């Protein structure tokens, strides 16, 4: 098959959604399919709406001569009207890949009402859905009737960075004396909630924690500057280390040597990093709002924090610092959670079979 994939920017961006798209492209290519990337410039939401009246984009899609067109749901402002024009000109399935639903993110109601009007119209314009988590699927079902169209939940894998070479290292790490080594992996963007995490940690005894933050510092430079200023003003320079973006073996090394993965104030559509952390036996602390609850069983392999009660994080950190056997048992439970999840190859093959059935329906 010849498959199109419509995205913003570049597949090389270090975000969970683009990581998912990269894995899917590689898997489809390995299965012998041709994948044509149709990349749109990344602009403001308002300017992206203008793509709907762009004859150039319509021509690009038509000349790609695809058997099926995948669309990253992130591009919905560019396509919520254009898809109807596409359907009148080309008879191929339009399939959206939904990583997260924009209009269900924490923000003022009037803003979400505006986004919802556009996003639901887009979601109603496609023929099928590839969804990254059960939580995201439930969110979609609140917005539209999915019973009339095919869909698949294909969760990301957590095996990209490998896993522990020995499960005994969980116990060895847990009983090491000193502060809890906390790891946050996420680009420095407001919705990731690092500012709230720092505010809560500033109230904890400094002897019980150290925090390493892995993520791009340039995607929102004013926010990154505010984070640096917050660290300095709170006297946390010795407590918090900002590494910038890391990947591969360097990132895996941080996972091996950390005690806990903490991203408790980010509403994730799936949260690949939670699962990658669990691959190294790290209990994960995430938000009760979003898809973290699909992986985290609070009190078993980590904790879920209610965004309305952020100080609950302090109680859990105090407990795990003083009760290293609890930390140890949660680490083993986290590893078992990872082991029970599908690999990237398994999930992407499920997507492959799904889109084959869409593009080549049975006689």
Automatic annotation (TrEMBL):
Gene3D superfamilies: Glycogen Phosphorylase B (3.40.50.2000). Residues 22-157 form the Glycosyltransferase subfamily 4-like N-terminal domain. It comes from candidate division KSB3 bacterium. One of its GO terms (molecular function) is hexosyltransferase activity. This is Glycosyltransferase. Coiled coil: none annotated. Residues 178-336 form the Glycosyl transferase family domain. The lineage of its organism: Bacteria, candidate division KSB3.
